[in-house]
Amino acid sequence: MHYVYVLKSEKDGNLYIGCTQDIEERLKYHNSGRVRSTKSRVPFGILYSEAYNDKYEAFNMERYYKTAKGKRALKLKL
Length: 78
Fold this sequence. Notes:
The protein has helices spanning 23-31, 55-65, 68-77, and strands at residues 2-9, 15-20, 44-52. The protein is of the alpha+beta class. The longest helix has 11 residues, at 55-65.
């Protein structure tokens, strides 16, 4: 399974959208400060996730959620 996930920074309230096979391990990786784009905003909590059987479908949804139209659709789900 592949997952598209949304993290919320407890520091500034901003969201981060990503894709992974193991959400819990990826969250630990983000919170350890080893991800350059999120290290200044730790700690994070999982706000939302979706599971996909196909990794390409998951990556396409991640890319979609990072667009303006996708962010609007994601806000409706949240």
